[in-house]
Design a protein that fits this description.
The chain has 225 residues and is mostly helical. The protein is built from 13 helices and no strands. It folds into 2 domains: 156 residues, lambda repressor-like DNA-binding domains (434 Repressor (Amino-terminal Domain), Orthogonal Bundle); 41 residues. Helix content is 70%, strand content 0%.
Length: 225
Amino acid sequence: MDYQLAINILSKKMGVLLRSARTQRGESKKTCGEVIGVTSRTINKYEMGEKSPSLPELEVLAFYLDVPLERFWEDMAPETQGKMESLKNLSQRIELRNLKIGASLRKFRQEANLSMKEVSERLGLTTYRLKSYEKGSFAVPVAELNALLRLYDREMNDLIVDSGPIAEWAHAKKAGEAFTKLPLDLQDFILKPVNQPYLEIAQKLSQMSVDKMRDVAEGLLDITL
C-alpha cells in the first residue's frame, strides 16, 4: 500500500468535508480556528488539504459543527455556543488527548512487532517525528494517524473518546442515524411509550445465552399446551 498517497488523498477529502460542514453552519474560518486554538490560515490549510488536523482538533470541530466524526475518514450560533460551554479547558483537553493517542500508538506499534525505523520507512516519516507522535509532544494529523492505524491493523474507533460531552454527542448522532435507517413500522413501534416493556424484553433476550433462551422457550411452550 502507498501510505503517502493515502495520506494525501485523505487530507484532501477531509478538507472538502470540513469546508462543507463549516459553510453549512455559517461559521467563519476565524471562529473555527478560535475554537481549537489555531489561526484562520491554519483552518484554510486544513480545508485545502495542505495540512491535516489532529484527531483531538477534529473531534472538537466535528462537535462544534455538529457533524458525525466518522464522516471525515469514511468515505457561532447561540445553540452552538451553549453546547461548547460543556467543553471546559479546550487547550488542555486537546493536549491530554494527544498524550493518550501517543501512548496508544506506541502500544499498537509494539503489539504489531514493528520498530520505529520500520514504521518511519513505510510511511515516509522521520523517526524523530514518529517518536514525537508517540510521546504526544506533536499532534498527529488525522491523515497520518489513519495510515498508522492501517499499518497496525487498527481502526480510528480504537482511539475515539468513550466518555464526556463529545462521546455522548457522537453516540447520539450515531444512534439517530441508525434509527432513521430502520423501516418506518419499526420506527413507529419504538416511538410509542407503551411498547417500552417489549423493547426491554428484547434487550434482555439478546443478552441471554442459548441455553437460557431454550429454557424460556420451553417454559412458554408448557404454558401454551
